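Deliverable D5.2: sample structural annotation.
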Amino acid sequence: MKWQRIVAKATAVVVAVGATLMAVSTPAQAAETATISRSIYLAPQSTGNAPLPVSAPRRIYLASGTYLWDATISLSGSSVGPERTIYLAAGWYNWRCHINGTGNPGIGDSNYYTYCYLDPENTNYQTVYVPSSGLYYFALPLGGTVNWVSRLDPQF
């Protein structure tokens, strides 16, 4: 009987150690990148405004942490746009981007600018922008249909 108790205790220890090793060796899941996007035609000379997303800001819950946040405009294989690394507190945010025409023809001058913002529902937090300076100017002299994407890529 004594040896049965010893075997039972030894088996319990081996099972407990095995379960601990399994838990430690399981890889952590990374947070997923959040994206809003739109394809849009931009004329060479415009004073219009286009929002992203089209209908309303995207309401999104973000975990606290550091994010790489960008807004990219792509046409014919080349891309431009601002990016920044930012720490965000956990909470609900309204996420929106805009492209505005300057009225310039885009030859030697920037004829568009873009910006995005995260407007927190918690009034103790401040609205944040990409780019952090407020506006990102770019030239699109010939116009065309662009792919417009903003991403929040968690760095945790």
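Annotation notes: The first helix runs from residue 2 to 25. The chain has one domain: 34-154.
The annotation will be released with the project's public dataset once the embargo ends.
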